[in-house]
Amino acid sequence: MPLKSFLQIWLDEYKKDTIRKNTYLLHQRNIQKHFLPYFDNIMLQDVKPIMYQKFLNQLTDKNYSKRSIEIVHTTMFNAMEKAVTLAKIEKNPCLGVTIKGQSKNDGITFMESSDIPRFLQATLQYDYSLLTESRTPPASI
Q1: CA quadruple 52, 57, 62, 67: dihedral positive or negative?
Q2: What is the distance between the alpha carbons of residues 82 and 61, in angstroms, rounded to a whole number?
Q3: How many whole angstroms separate alpha carbon 138 and alpha carbon 135?
Q4: DSSP string over the chain
Q5: What is the Cα–Cα distance from 45 to 16, expressed in whole angstroms?
Q6: Percent of the chain residues past pLDDT 70, beyond the cut
């Protein structure tokens, strides 16, 4: 069975109406944009771990973020798990892959809880007293 046929069956028969619409559309986009162009006319049983690893590596080479590659990988991994369950293949070729790439760092860092007292003391030094003022309820009308 061609990989593209199996992926379409997986999407239509096992995913449609069982997952949220956005998740379905994500799987559909991953198949159309990534898997079909790369794997072209390959047969399902001919997808091998090294071939799949090379597929993931080329996404890294195209500067996809690590998280984007993980999302693409999730689609293929789930489809191949179903292929194993249905006895279409013996082993999931997506098992044991290494997802390369860099995680995006949005620059947000968090304060350690042990630093909070020192931070609050520093606010007093600069007269940021709003943090320590007691709030009085508004006068009733």
Answers
A1: positive
A2: 29
A3: 9
A4: -BHHHHHHHIIIIIITTTS-HHHHHHHHHHIIIIIHHHHTT-BGGG--HHHHHHHHHHHHHTT--HHHHHHHHHHHHHHHHHHHHTTS-SS-TTTT----S-----S-----GGGHHHHHHHHHHTT-GGGTPPPPPPPP-
A5: 24
A6: 84
Residue 95: pLDDT above 70? Answer: yes
Q: Which residues contact 48 (CB under 8 A, 6 or more apart)?
A: 93
| Separation of alpha carbons 83 and 54, rounded Å | 21
Would you call 53 exposed, middle or buried from its count of C-beta atoms within 10 A (0-12, 13-18, 19+)?
Answer: middle
Amino acid at 92: N
Residues near 1 by Cβ (< 8 Å), separated by ≥ 6? 43, 44, 45, 88
Tens-place pLDDT, residues 17-37:
999 999 999 999 999 999 999
pTM of the model: 0.70
